[in-house]
Amino acid sequence: MIYIIANRLSAQSVEVRKSQLILNDLTVNMFSEGFCTELFRPQPLYSLGATLSIFSSLSETSMMKLASNSIQKLFDLMRMSVKRQLQSLAHPLEIIEWTLNHVEGVQQFVPQQTQPTLIQLRERLLALHRTLNVGDYHWIRRALLNFTAGFRVKVSLFLNNRLQDTEGMFLYPPPSYLVPLPSCEAPGTVRRYSDGKVVETTTVPHRDASLRYPPHVAPGTWDCTQRKCRVTSAGVNVFAHGDDVLRMQSQEIVPGKAHVTAEEQAKEATRGYELEMNYLSQLAGKRHPSAHEKIHLTLFEEESNGTKPSPRRQRS
């Protein structure tokens, strides 16, 4: 969310002071003590509607003004970006690398007075990481994959970089390295055992048989919390490639329950269980903006001229 908003503030030439106020308000609320305490509390995964409500509340905590339609599209874009990055991870432990990359990336956009908040968040993440094992990360990844399953939106940034096809399916390059763990080997080796000993070793052709460990991480020395040892770039700012990343954004191509309708949001708001589960949404909107002035931020080109995107743009 911070990456996308920062991109649009820059694209619309919003003055530096106002941009900093918006980013500061968003991060102060997003990483506040109460919000993070609730976020780190063990609990079931939030529903789609509850998650959208959280981001909607966060967007109202600054001097930035977004249309409801813009918030929905922002949420769809964030969801697709998370899905893309999540599916690119080769090992469950890369989830902590992905998360730390994101936190450190956000630090580049926030004022100096907000930095301690992000530093504290990083320490909480590392403390939680020390209580988890590979199996825990596997189940986290599984839950997140299920959360994003069956949802496809064309993203112009991915299409232009050939990371997505015209049907909205992601395209991935072949793997370039092995996970730097002693238990991970390149595929293609077949061993036959007898009495617990290897008696025969053969090889079969495989396209990934030539894969090697990353040159900067020796097998058995991988510490996924250290920047110098990281093997994934997931979590870095992919929206820093140009000012028109969102202006060219296309529409959803798969019908169904991908979008959260106003009716669905209203139904969730009336459920006692969802009200309790959506406590994060209440915490997100607890703080008031640091300025009373509102900046109307246009995320998508069709919102600025009141027209729908042309067929060519829909295919971009």
Automatic annotation (TrEMBL):
Q: Which domain of life is it from?
A: Eukaryota
GO cellular component assignments = cytoplasm; plasma membrane
Q: Transmembrane stretches, by residue range?
A: none
Q: Which InterPro entries does the record match to this protein?
A: OSCP1 (IPR019332)
Coiled-coil annotation reads none
* Short name of any one Pfam family annotated for the protein: Oscp1
This one is known as Organic solute transport protein 1, putative
Annotated source species: Angomonas deanei
